[in-house]
Write a structure and sequence with these properties.
Elements: E1 2-9, H1 16-24, E2 29-30, E3 37-40, H2 47-61, E4 66-73
Antiparallel strand pairs: 1-3, 1-4, 2-3
Amino acid sequence: MITYMTIQFDSEGRKPSDVVSALEDIGFKPAAGIYDLQYDWNRDADIDEVLSLADKVTATLKGMKVSFKLETAREEF
């Protein structure tokens, strides 16, 4: 499974490089294409694990003035 993320930055928020660095610290990697980052599970994850990851993302981005969207899929797009 892979969790994909798109980010919407705010001109009053943190620098994009700071945001990406913080997300890399919790396991996301920059992605090319329609998504900004991706988290590779390397296995099937259950809904509780996906929600836990979403909670980590929320805590990591708190105060950075960015919005995000997550999509989890069983195979690459």
